[in-house]
Amino acid sequence: MAGNKIYSESEFQVSGLKIDVIRKNVKNLNLRVYPAEHRVRISVPRRIPDSEVARFIEDKLPWIRKHLANYRKRPKSEPKKFITGESHSVWGQKLELVVVEKNKPPRVFVDDDKLNLYIRPGTDQKKRASVLKEWYRDELKQRIPELIGKWEPQMGVKVEEFGVKQMKTRWGTCNIRARRIWLNLELAKKRPELLEYVVVHEMVHLLERLHNKRFYGFMSRFLPNWKALKNELNGKSHVSDC
After folding, report:
1. pLDDT band at 37 (very low <50, low <70, confident <90, very high)
2. What is the CATH number of the domain that holds 104?
């Protein structure tokens, strides 16, 4: 279907950086940096000459290099040991884990800036991780119905079922025929606004199956700031020439 392609791709080399240039029907130049992939991409209106694109990129070079460098400086995350003093994320906040051994059923609760994990004496690391994982699952299951209930009447759709599971490459999925959505367990570690973004995204698939212009039109109608939320969730940096 190459003849139906509505954009063209090329590659620029600017000060040693490889830039993917996508020419398509947009009004402004939109620059995105993908630090984890060490990749830079810019969407460009069709009629803007290459010289102007190159000048725009050169002007943004300090910004580009800053975001690429910041990613390289991030310390590699060590595997969690689920011991007192570790930092664990809950709804976008870093909390200190406090492990308390008591001969009672395990439980987890947040107290100010502490994430308290009560487990029986001698509980191993695998079991500690499992207890905390199920607590995250419960946290999500408490919030998701409220979000679905909020958006169903606004969208005019009905979600028959939802679930929470660990996913490696997606934040959510939607089974359109069953009207069932799945949410990634890791969303309990993100800001609540990011969970809402994913819920809305999956529910919009009940209106439009494909990621096309109509789909993104719905996203902009329901969540005008969805692009910023998406970039935050995926750890992307973005700048636009407005």
Report:
1. low
2. 3.30.2010.10
pTM of the model: 0.69
Spacing of C-alpha 91 from chain mean position? 13
Note down the domain range covering 64: 2-75
pLDDT tens digits along 130-166: 999 999 999 999 999 999 999 999 999 999 999 999 9
Question: By percentage, how much of the chain surpasses pLDDT 70?
Answer: 90
| Confidence class for position 239, pLDDT limits 50, 70, 90 | very low
Domain boundary among 14, 44, 75: 75
177 within a domain of the structure (yes/no)? yes
The pLDDT value recorded for residue 4 is 39
Q: Determine, yes or no, domain membership for 203.
A: yes
Domain total for the chain? 2
Shared domain check, 93 and 57: no
